Amino acid sequence: MSNIFDDRLFKPPGTFMGLDYGHDLNGRKAAVLGVPYDNGTHGHRVGARDGPRAIREASRLIRRFRPPDADFDPLERLGVIDCGDVKVVPSMLADAEASIQEAVNLIAGAGAVPLTMGGDGSVTIGQLRAMAGHHPDLVVLHVDSHTDANPGDDRPKATGNTFVRAAEEGLVDTDVSIHVGMRGTFYNPGIFEKARDLGYGLMTYEEIRTRGVDEITSDLKQRLAGRPVYLCWDMDFFDPSCAPGVCAPIPGGPSAEEGLRLLRGLSGLNFVAFDVNTVSPPHDVQGITAQLAAQVMYNCLILLCENPKQI
Q1: Is the pLDDT of residue 153 over 90?
Q2: How far is CA 148 from each of CA 6, 139, 163, 225, 302, rounded to the nearest angstrom?
Q3: Which domain holds residue 34?
Q4: CATH number of domain containing 204
Q5: Burial class (CB within 10 angstroms; exposed 0-12, middle 13-18, buried 19+) of 288
Q6: How far apart are CA 233 and CA 297, in angstroms?
Q7: Crossing angle of helices 51-58/288-305, nearest 10°?
Q8: Residue 139, SS3?
Q9: Which phi and psi (to 5°) does residue 239 adopt?
Q10: Residue 1 pLDDT class (50, 70, 90 cuts)
Q11: Is residue 64 in some structural domain?
């Protein structure tokens, strides 16, 4: 009996939406990458290191077609592959940043758009370093309830000052980059002023709520048009009623429908990387946060299909 198994009978276990697993990116326009890391800085919410596993499991519920506006298979159209997880050790931040940067750099260098799933907010800086090397005019669209550009933070490598570091290192054009969705309480005064002092634009959730999603997305597309866009989507942007399993839940946010409508409204931008983070499975309820995060990732792939550089 042959010891070579028929590949038609086997598939990799637990990939995102049943994708092929591997690292041959020839002909691939996008690649999924898990970043199973958290920094242990959320004293009562450690667990985002298990986010990629939970999102992959939840993604089994997603079908590939979304009529009437996206009645096609974005995974097939883009040739998406699941590259597995970056090898990291939670709390070993410097090593993790270097590994994340190298892994994302390999994906981008092969011509594929990285679609990553974290992990807490500290997974972003390594990715920005990698993408800035490929796109010197990179801008970031950061959708979150926090700015992650905190003043007065004496922890030089905390999750809350990712975008301070990005500005100081010149990784993004802060004059065009923008934080969207801020709300709730903060540790320090002057949070919004600090972000603006660094050059970032800032739009609170109250502004989204009062002006409406359609008007906001129109403004964002006008602001970011023609630039390579890094979308950083923190799942605590959503209200905890639909995303309880996050690192720092903030009540009073958008519903799943409102948040996904905002995401879909960004069609036509030149997205070069997607970073979906802060799913914390130990704090989830029946996997609804992971399922919503998987939907965010699926919608990111549709956005990539609608990218004028991909069409």
Answers
A1: no
A2: 49, 16, 6, 24, 27
A3: 26-154+161-305
A4: 3.40.800.10
A5: middle
A6: 10
A7: 80
A8: strand
A9: -65, 145
A10: very low
A11: yes
Instruction: Please state, in angstroms and rounded to a whole number, the distance separating the CA atoms of residues 270 and 175.
Output: 17
Q: Burial of 186 by CB count in 10 Å (0-12 exposed, 13-18 middle, 19+ buried)? A: middle
What does the radius of gyration of the chain's CA atoms come to, in whole angstroms?
18
d(CA 259, CA 28): 28
Minimal CA–CA distance to 158: which of 131, 182, 124? 124
Count of residues in the chain: 311
Summarised one tens digit per residue, pLDDT across range 297-311 is 999 999 999 987 765
233 bridge partner residues: 143, 276
Three-state DSSP at 182 gives: strand
Q: What percent of the chain has pLDDT over 90?
A: 81
Query: 139-143 and 228-234 as β-strands: parallel, antiparallel, unpaired?
Result: parallel
Query: Number of structural domains, the chain?
Result: 1
- Give the C-alpha separation, 135 to 127, whole Å: 12
pLDDT tier at 13, thresholds 50, 70, 90: confident
Q: Is residue 243 domain-resident?
A: yes
The answer to whether residue 246 sits within a structural domain is yes
| 17 located within any domain | no
In the chain, where does DSSP find H-type helix?
51-58, 74-78, 93-109, 124-134, 162-168, 191-197, 205-211, 213-224, 256-264, 288-305
Q: Is 148 left (phi over 0), alpha (psi -120 to 50) or beta?
A: left
Q: How confident is the model at residue 3 (pLDDT cuts 50, 70, 90)?
A: low
16's tokens: 């995102």
Mean pLDDT computed over 51-60: 96
Q: Give the Å distances, CA to CA, from 35 to 87, 134, 159, 183, 211.
A: 8, 20, 15, 26, 35
**Tokens describing residue 79:** 């040739």
